[in-house]
Amino acid sequence: MAGSVLKHRAAEQGFSYVVLMFTIVLIGLGTTMAARQWKVMIQRELEVDLISKGIEIQNALAFYSASMKAGRVVPGEVYPQTLAELTRSPKPFLRKVYGDPVGHGDWELVRAPTGGIMGVRSKSKGKPIWQHNFPPAVRHFDGRKSHYEWVFQHPNPSATFVGMAGPGAMVPGSAGPQGASPGAASMAPQNPAGMSPPQAGLPVYPTAP
Predict the structure, then answer these.
(1) What number is the average pLDDT over the span 98-120?
(2) Of the candidates 190, 161, 191, 164, the residue with the CA atom closest to the CA atom of residue 176
(3) Does residue 82 lie in a domain region?
């Protein structure tokens, strides 16, 4: 009789142990999945921030060049030597010198043959989650394999700000209506307090890579 009770208790303890281990495994799997989802969510937010700030810098470089060339015959583009030049009064083109949201530091500067800054890129070599459906100003980012390949520059391969500035808006570095020459003073939009133009809203982030 006593032996049967002991065997029954041992069986119960063994079953409880199995249930406990199974529960621990489930909790571990759930925690791992939650951590991965959290990491993906954070990366998506950082990539949206990277695109937003990168486009703002790209626009600022375009407006800077158009402003410096206004009323003058200047071959090619005119670029600043530092990003800080884009923020200086009396006509700042950039609100502030942003850092690299993904690389967590300074941008890597893309220099023109003349030595000026024609663009910026993240120092991150990580693979982006965002692969398609980019804003018009950086539509050429489609299918790029790393953040490092996202180069925000003027002139840019997408060759358009249409969709950001709006239909009929003047685009720095491009011909205006009736064949107006690039670089004309009228091409730079009038911005409140001389600040760079507000950025158009970014599209909804793709729900799947």
Answers:
(1) 95
(2) 161
(3) yes
